[in-house]
Every structure is written in structure tokens, then in C-alpha cells.
Amino acid sequence: MSNSSTNLEWKSLTLLCLPTLSISLSTNIVVAALSDINHAFKGIEGLGSWTLLLYSATAASLSIAAGELGDRVGLRRVYGQGLMIYLIGSCIAALAINGPMLLAGRVVSGTGAAILAPVALAFLSRMYQGRDKPIAFGYWAASVTIGKVAGPILGGLIEAMSSWRWTFIVAAAPALLGLIMIRKLPRFERTEDTKNQPIDLIGIGGLSTLPAIGLITLNLSTHIHTNILAILTIIIFAIGTLTWRHLNSTQHPAIPLARLKESSWWRPTILQLIVRIVFMAMLVILTSYFHSIRGESEINASRDLLPFCIAVGIMSFSTGYICQSLGVRKLLQSVFVLATAGAAILLSITTSGFRPIDWAAIITIGILAGSTSQLSRLALSNFAPEEAMRGASLNTLVINLGLALGAAYPNMIHGIVSNELHLGGLMSQIEMLFTMRLEIMILLFLFIAGTWQAGKIKEA
User: Fold this and answer.
1) Quick one: 227 and 142 in the same domain?
2) pLDDT band (50, 70, 90) for residue 449
């Protein structure tokens, strides 16, 4: 950072990164424990997948409500509340004696995450300006990346040495440290305008309900009767239509639709959604490949994911500096083209293991996944400082929605293939490899769409 940044800003940036690290770990560290979680409580089918989905779905659903809370209560105060809620949820999950208790803990943790992520982004948007801003966002994204890198490795080590319960405890440790040191953050109290502005309860309710019902329906789509699926689809469409009409007609909407129609917001936001879906889907797909097709242990599967995760990490640290010389558009175009080529290479993967070109392919996808911080910065540049929390909550909604869709996507394709081939949930190595290739082939359309839109990005 430049000399204009004070020591307080450096310390504040560190404190913002600690809870963000916990949020990232809460998704990635659990991936390695999915198999053991499924075996621990057998009363709920696909319990491991539900622990991922409910956490991400809750975080996505409540992010808009969290944005309103931050604007009205004050950033530091609501940040502390989010930390406490997240830590309570982690304790519930770690001490769970049955499946429902575990899922309840994940919902509570997701509620805390819904508050923490947008508040951190709002702090960054208000604390840093000019050339400091892309670097600050890059460092914040690096904390997310450290969670991505360390999560699978720590999860594998925990599975090898102890119980899956420790995954939730280890993930919560950075958040606990952040709570202890929270008074070092600036207050950024609410303004009189936000204090007196009426709350759009109908808009918040609709925007909170849609992601929750949509993601749960998506996860259940291959396991429920067609009539029930049709009813849920109609409900989602009806809620979406009514919410859209309300947001267009009310004087103080929960989200400013007119501003969101600007390409300076929706284009980086769509790219953010694409990258998040691709990252989480590839993480689940690769974990399944090493664990189920190659028959590796959790710790060995985590070790094999290391090149992918390291690529994400290095790119997250570097994007702020690269953008200053190369620019966002050229950066994003380059990484999307590389990742598209990498995904195409993975279509030829075999059951005998990775070839050198396959390792290179997953690294290119990791480089793409590490470039998302600048997309958040571009989207937030559409909001004034006093609206930073609202813009951050929208960005968080997109991030969590992408992660949840990415986590649900491989299971959905797996279920469709299993039903079509009448396999009853059991697949041979060849059938699992076919399913994996199909999943990657469909993801290729997202890579191509991202490459197209990245060429139209405008610098903030």
C-alpha cells in the first residue's frame, strides 16, 4: 500500500481478514469431512452435502437483510453481532449429537456469515480509495484464498488424525480472534439518512426467500416427484415476479433496481457468479475424482488438490498489483481464456490418474478463481460510501449464491445420470468418470460466457 495508508488501516485490514478466513474455511474445510459426516448420522440422506448447502444458502438468503442492519446499526456493532452468531453456530455444529442438530448449527453459522462478509466489504469500500483500493481488495481476497488453500489440507489432516467435529472448531478460530480484537476497528456509525429511511420489509422478505427456496429445490430436484418439483418452481416464479414488481413500485426499495441495470454493476456481478460456481463445482468434482474414482484417502485427496488451491492463493495476492499495470479487462480476458482451455483438457482425463497436462489445466482454473476480488471492487464502485453496506450485501448474495450453486451442481448431475442409467445410486469407476466429464462439459458453457463478458468489462 501507499504511504497514505495509516497503521490503523493496516490493523483494521488484518481484523477484517480473520473472520473472512473463517467463513472461507467453513466451506472448504468441511469438503474433506463429507464422507465421515454422512457415516456419522445416517438418518438423513446426503447429510454431508446438506451441511454445505444450508450454510451457503443461509448466508446468501440473509445477506440483503444484513445490509439493512449494517446501514442502520453501524458497521462495527453489527460486525460484532455477526461474529458472535457465527461462533455460536460453529459450537452447535461441533457438539451435534444428531443430523438435525448439525444442520441447525450450520444454519446459525450461515446467519453469522451473512452478516460478516458484506460488513467486511463495506469497511474496505469506505476505508480505502484510489490506488490503495484494488490492493486492499486483493489482500482481503487473499484471506478467502488462504481458507481455500488451507481448508482441504486441514480437513484432510483432521480426518486422518481426529474427528470431523474439529473441522468446525478449527474454522472458527480466526473469527474468535477477530471478536477479541474488534475494538480496533473504526466505528463508521449510521447516518441520519439511513436512520430515518423506512425499511422495505416486503422486498427484504422476497429477496431472502428466493435464494433459500431456489437452492433447496435445486438440491432436491433429482429426489422428489415431478409434481412437487413443478409446484416449487411455480412458487419460486411467483415470489420472484411479486418481488420484482414491488421493488419497481416502492419508493425505498431494498435494492436499487435502476442502478443494477447499469452494465458497470451487472457485468462484473455476472462474472463473479460464474467464477464462484466454477470454483466450488471444480473443488467438489476434483475431490470426488481423487476420493471416489482414484480411491485415495481424505488426506491424500487434499494433498492432490494443493496445486489448484495454491494457484488460487497466488493469484489472489497478485491481482491488485497486476491490475495497476495490466488493467482489469486484459487480466480477466487472459485468465478466462486460459481456464477455458484448461477445462477442455480435463474432458480427456482417465481413471489412471492425472497427466502433467491435467495438472496444468487445474492450475489455470485456480488462477481464474483467484481473480474475483477485482470483480467485487468494480461492482461496489457503483455505490456511494454511505451505501457501501447495501452494495456489499448484494455482492455477498452473489458470492454465496454462486458457491451454493457450485456445491449443488455436481450432486444434481450425479442424480440425473444415476436415474437415467437406473443405477440406484451405485456407479462404477467408468460411470463416475463419464459423469465427471459431463459435469465439466456443461461448465464449459460458463467458461465461454465468462470469456465473452470479460472482454466488455470497463475499468472503475
Assistant:
1) no
2) very high
pLDDT (tens digit per residue) in 119-151: 888 888 777 777 777 777 877 877 877 777 677
Q: Is residue 1 part of a domain?
A: no
Instruction: Enumerate residues 6+ apart whose C-beta is below 8 A from 297.
Output: 156, 160, 291
Q: How many domains does the chain have?
A: 2
Taking CB atoms within 8 Å and a gap of at least 24, the contacts of 199-202 are 199/68, 199/72, 200/68, 200/247, 200/250, 200/252, 200/253, 200/254, 202/243, 202/246, 202/250
**In this structure, are 111 and 214 located in the same domain?**
no
Q: What is the mean pLDDT of residues 255-273?
A: 87
**Residue at 45 is within a domain:** yes
Domain coverage including residue 206: 201-252
Assess whether 241 and 269 both reside in one domain: no
51 Cβ contact partners less than 8 Å away, ≥ 6 residues apart:
30, 34, 37, 93, 102, 103, 106
Give me the helices (H) in 221-305, please: 226-249, 257-260, 263-288, 298-304
Pair 90, 157 in one domain: yes
Compute the distance between CA of residue 372 and CA of residue 269 in angstroms, rounded to an integer: 10
Q: Are residues 306 and 244 both part of a single domain?
A: no
Q: What is the pLDDT of residues 323-357, one digit of tens each?
A: 878 888 899 999 999 999 999 999 998 888 888 99
Looking at the predicted structure, is the pLDDT value of residue 361 above 80? Answer: yes
Task: Indicate if 155 and 246 belong to the same structural domain.
Answer: no
Percent of the chain with pLDDT over 70: 92
Res. 92: pLDDT tops 70 = yes
Residue 290 DSSP class: I
**Element (DSSP H or E) covering residue 359:** helix 356-369
Answer yes or no: do 69 and 149 share one domain: yes
